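Lab intake sheet, docking and co-folding queue.

SAMPLE TYPE: protein with bound small molecule
LIGAND NAME: pyridoxal-5'-phosphate
LIGAND FORMAT: SMILES
REQUESTED OUTPUT: full 3D complex as structure tokens
PRIORITY: normal
SUBMITTED BY: R.K., bench team

The fields below were copied directly from the construct record.
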Amino acid sequence: MSNNTKVTDSFNFFNGNDPKELVKKYGSPLYVISESIIRQRCRELKNLVKYPKFIPNYSAKANSNLAFLEIVQSEGLNADAMSPGEIHVELMAGFKPEQIFYVSNNVSADEMKFAVEKGVTVSVDSLSQLETYGKVNKGGKVAVRLNPGVGAGHSAKVVTGGKKTKFGFTLDLIPQIEETIKKYDLKLIGINQHIGSLYMEPDAFLQSVATTLEVSKQFKELEFIDFGGGFGIPYQKLNDQPRLDLKKLGEEFDKLLNKFVKEYGKEITFKIEPGRYISAESSVLLGTVTAVKTNGEDKYIGTDIGFNVLQRPVMYDSHHDIEVYNDSKEDEKVTVVGNICESGDILAKDRVIPKAVEGDIIGVLDAGAYGYSMCSNYNNRLRPAEVLIRENGEAVLVRERDTFEDLTRHFISIKE
Ligand SMILES: *Cc1c(COP(=O)(O)O)cnc(C)c1O
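RESULT FIELD (auto-filled):
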């Protein structure tokens, strides 16, 4: 193997496999998932606090591959769902209905009914949705999502607390929540919040925890409070970006929880909803250099990783480190692009990477969260395969690459 694999080596990511051989066997582009890393991240978060009734709900929207969910389930985590489809795959992966929490937002009565009939707890986040829920499940249990007034995140598109977001009940609405709960004879058993995605400092999270706990005291029948996800991972590993200080976050978090249960007088369950923290570092997206060219001052490295395969750089301006699996000792500044017919199809702009030539295999790091789960067939391209590297180093296929039949499966011709 080459010397251009500093980050993946530091994790023993490929665990004896050669990325070039994986592409030869399974094709390109290819998502490669590490079982060991998923398990490690699950354990870190399960042990985040010492408080005994604490459980992370893995937020499946970050990565809902079935094998991935089966691993998370076997680690003893619960799961969050954002849609009936996610509830469906979570049940398939072995989560029990009572281990699933449907954090809904602007959903139809039918979707709520689907969750209720499956035995899944539902959270709603507006008076209008609480009314709908009351009609669907009169006399039932419900959770409500509060907006604690604090937001955080890597892009305005993912900040979900504070003033500028569509999510949650602002705290002034609490009297009306109580009224609607009474009207439909509902039992308010849970409070949840989610302030945003990818914070690297504990402060905003802890502040929102303190606020939500304070507000929650007035609700007397709570079984759980869920503090959301958003735990960040360092995407700039080649620049030695430090990790989120989980130890510090956990210690402060623990203190707040223990103080609350003393005052509340009941050991309720506390939850978090991490998606990215568990999944992002578990996958490397392999691709192939298909063209190298210069245009004026700029050198372009053309690859088969279009934004249909990884949307994050285009959608959120996100940074992903890139490794080049060759023996080049020379670095150069290039713009790495995909094969989609849009100028915006840029994976990395003005990036210094090892000199790459046609046929080289590159790895886009930390691609496990919002990677495959946001893939599309745009340009009628086939979504890639996914391979899992088991803990013993064996590579197994866990999702097939799309075929032309998959592309045309739902077409209905009008030709006689
Ligand atoms: C997206 C989402 C999460 C997970 O966010 P991450 O940043 O991936 O941890 C958790 N809870 C809710 C309500 C979400 O919408």
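REVIEWER NOTE: The chain has two domains: 3-32+281-408, 35-278.
SIGN-OFF: pending second check by T.M.
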